[in-house]
Design goal:
By secondary structure, this protein is an alpha/beta fold. The chain contains five helices and twelve strands.
Length: about 180
């Protein structure tokens, strides 16, 4: 079931009109930076977005400007990733699975705020990710405030959950924070 859900929502995201995507990304960015969750965070764990994902690069740059400590995912082994600090965009390199990651190894165990990618969400703050269980495993083993970034059109009535699936604390869309 989740495989079909992933395929459907990934295709939706890939087909989203670039102008609409850019508009939604900007609204999500504004909802994040105007939130007390962001303002009060001194350390923030942010995924490095790919083309079809909600853009996080502008938020990373804003976080540097705001004096926050920025951490990005670094895959260690199957289903295990760490939050590794970067101090500028030049410290981003290609890592496992040809994904962007940090060049260093300065790890934080409990960032104040963690931004989580996904393909879809529901009212109970469940999400369907990309199938690697990296974020579910991270959430289960680290203290943070977890905020999922989604377009409002990616909402499902109810996501089928499995034992390892973790619940997010907040969902951010172009329409606001849930």
């Amino acid at each position: 079931m989740k495989k079909e859900i992933r395929r459907y929502f990934l295709n939706f995201k890939r087909r989203l009109n670039k102008n609409i995507k850019d508009e939604y990304d900007k609204k999500i960015y504004e909802n994040i930076i105007n939130s007390d969750l962001y303002k009060n965070a001194t350390s923030i764990f942010i995924y490095l977005s790919m083309d079809y994902e909600i853009d996080t690069r502008a938020l990373i740059k804003k976080s540097f400007k705001d004096g926050k400590k920025v951490y990005v995912p670094k895959i260690r082994k199957k289903m295990i990733m760490d939050a590794v600090q970067i101090e500028n965009m030049d410290q981003i390199v290609k890592g496992a699975y040809d994904l962007d990651t940090a060049s260093g190894d300065n790890i934080i165990k409990s960032p104040d705020l963690t931004l989580v990618p996904g393909l879809c969400f529901d009212d109970n703050k469940h999400r369907v990710g990309f199938g690697g269980a990296y974020y579910d495993n991270y959430i289960a083993n680290h203290d943070s405030i977890y905020m999922g970034l989604f377009y409002s059109q990616l909402k499902m009535d109810k996501i089928p959950i499995e034992d390892h699936d973790q619940v997010l604390d907040y969902i951010v869309t172009e329409n606001g924070i849930i």
